[in-house]
């Protein structure tokens, strides 16, 4: 069971930071998938451009990322001619 935001904020900001990073990764991944589709690219084509497997592209698009996998999102964005901007805390 995934904890709700209220359960995460029990005074421990680390858990909230992790959840925020996951949410931001998921949102970025969603936007990348939408841009890929807009450009008419298949996941296989993005995989070739980024040097990962088509399965990994699917995982990225589904937000299956750890907070430290910004490099994966960045490579994906570059393959689409875009970029990733991280916000500070």
Key words describing this protein structure:
mainly alpha, elongated, 89 residues
Short synopsis of the structure:
It contains 5 helices and no strands.
Report on the structure:
The chain is mainly alpha-helical and 89 residues long. Helix content is 64%, strand content 0%. It has five helices and no strands. The protein has helices spanning 5-8, 13-39, 43-50, 54-61, 70-79. The longest helix is centred in the N-terminal third of the chain and has 27 residues, at 13-39. The model has no long low-confidence stretch (mean pLDDT 76).
Q: Which stretches are poorly predicted, pLDDT < 50 over at least 5 residues?
A: none
- Give the number of helices: 5
Overall residue-averaged pLDDT value: 76
Number of extended strands: 0
Biggest beta sheet attributes:
none
Question: What integer value in Å does the Rg equal?
Answer: 14 Å
* β-strand amount: under 5%
Shape: elongated
Order of helices and strands: HHHHH
What is the distance, rounded to the nearest whole angstrom, between the alpha carbons of the first and last residues? 26 Å
What structural category characterises the helix and strand content?
mainly alpha
Helix content: 55-70%
Strand and helix layout:
Layout: H1 5-8, H2 13-39, H3 43-50, H4 54-61, H5 70-79
